[in-house]
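User: Before I run my own analysis I want an independent prediction to cross-check against. Here's the chain; please return only the structure tokens and, at the end, one sentence I can use as a sanity check.
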Amino acid sequence: MPKGSQLKDSGKLGRGMMALPHFLAGGGEIGALMRAKSWGDTPLGPPETWPDVLKMAVSICLNSRFPITLWWGPELVMLYNDAWRPVLGKTKHPAGLGRPGIESWPEIWDITGAQFTSVLTRGEATWSDDLLLVLERNNYREEAYFTYSYSPIKHSDGSIGGVFGAINETTERVLGERRLRILRELAAQTAESKSVQAACEAFARVLGAGNPDLPFAILYVLDEDRTFASLLAKTGLDDAFAPAAVRLEHEYAFAAELDPAWAAKPLAITRHVRQPIEIGQFLRLSVALSGAIGQLHGLELIHKDRRT
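Assistant: Structure tokens:
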């Protein structure tokens, strides 16, 4: 076969296949996924039939390093880039690519759907700053925060074909700032505590003041033999869930009642009565546990009273 024919044939992708559209070039993992996807099975249809404005938006999206999503047509079909991929978690990718947005985000559609409708009908951009959205993207419900703007994607005749989203997840910063505020408040409230009782009561006041990170807390003090725990303070729980006294078979039996895996872990935080309780250690432990169980529901703090 002549060399010219070889070069010509090398550009073919196979019988019945067409050359890939240039606007799908680049884009890393998501770009490769878009080029391999059978778009004829989606509401958008084959890429070569997409409107020019959508092609341009897709090219910008794929080649941007900022998290970007596109929502196209009356069904608000979802497209996105590599930078936005982490927002989808473990359960929404890759199934959500090229599908109506409501299929991937039913848990927040009452919020985002209304914002999309506003953009499509009024042609004005939206703005949300550290907006709380409770997501189900990792097989459990979690609070997430986002700063983002939705703006209209317009055809050459001025009609609106879809929505362009520039989105930055701020969850880590928002939670970090909130926990630091709690830490400062705990330090301030317990600084003058002269006894375990006073310190625990201060703990309960701060943790009970609408604290979403620790919706409940139970604080006990152990006797010298570490076999008996007495309730000193609690918040967020009824009396039925916080017994006034608990007998322990061994040092960590109380923690083991919550989860057997905790039995071997040093959950008892021990300090002399006249020393400040190390609040930072308490909060770091709570954060570590929240990662282990998916969503933190509370932490029981056992404090050793070493009166001398």
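Sanity check: The two ends are 97 Å apart (CA to CA).
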